[in-house]
C-alpha cells in the first residue's frame, strides 16, 4: 500500500521534483517487495529430504543466508507423523513431518520437518525403512 501511495503521489502532485521522488520511491518499494517474494518462494524450494537405511537427512538451503542440515538416526525414532493442516497445505500437498524420539515435543525444530512435500507418503516410507532395520 505504501508503494501505491508513493506512485499515486507522483501523479497527483504539481511539483516536478517531488513527483520524481514519489515515483522512484514507489518503484523502489515495488522492486524490493518483488525481490523479497521471489527470494522467499525460491528458498522454499531448496529443501531436500534424504532417506537412507540408517538415518534421515534434511537439508535446508536459502539463497544467500543459510545452509543447514539435520539428521535423525532411524534407530532413535519411535514414531513418525505426517500432518497437513489448512486449505493450502491440502491443496498443494505439503505439511509437517514430526519424529517422536522419546521425550521430544512437537515444538522442537530438530524433531520436525516443516513444509515437507507429501508428508504422509514420507511417513509411510520412513516407517517401512524402520521395519527393515
Which secondary structure elements does this structure contain, and how are they paired or packed?
Blueprint: H1 2-12, H2 16-44, E1 47-51, E2 55-61, E3 67-73, E4 79-83, H3 87-92, E5 94-100, E6 112-117, H4 119-132
Antiparallel strand pairs: 1-2, 2-3, 4-5, 5-6
Helix pairs in contact: 1-2
Give an overview of the whole structure:
The chain has 133 residues and is α+β, with helices and mostly antiparallel strands. The chain has two domains: 2-43; 47-132, PH-domain like. The chain contains four helices and six strands; from the N terminus they run ααββββαββα. The chain has a three-stranded antiparallel sheet, with no helix packed on it. A hairpin with a 5-residue loop joins strand 2 (55-61) and strand 3. Helix 1 runs antiparallel to helix 2. The termini are far apart. The model has no long low-confidence stretch (mean pLDDT 79).
Amino acid at each position: 500500500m505504501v508503494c501505491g501511495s508513493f506512485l499515486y503521489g507522483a501523479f497527483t502532485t504539481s511539483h516536478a521534483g517531488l513527483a520524481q521522488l514519489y515515483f522512484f520511491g514507489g518503484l523502489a518499494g515495488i522492486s524490493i517487495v518483488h525481490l523479497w517474494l521471489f527470494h522467499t518462494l525460491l528458498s522454499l524450494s531448496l529443501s531436500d529430504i534424504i532417506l537412507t537405511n540408517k538415518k534421515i537427512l534434511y537439508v535446508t538451503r536459502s539463497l544467500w543466508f543459510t545452509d543447514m542440515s539435520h539428521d535423525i538416526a532411524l534407530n532413535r525414532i519411535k514414531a513418525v507423523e505426517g500432518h497437513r493442516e489448512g486449505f493450502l497445505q491440502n491443496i498443494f500437498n505439503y505439511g509437517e513431518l514430526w519424529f517422536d524420539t522419546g521425550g521430544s515435543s512437537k515444538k522442537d525444530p530438530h524433531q520436525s520437518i516443516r513444509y515437507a512435500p507429501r508428508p504422509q507418503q514420507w511417513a509411510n516410507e520412513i516407517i517401512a525403512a524402520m521395519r527393515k532395520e
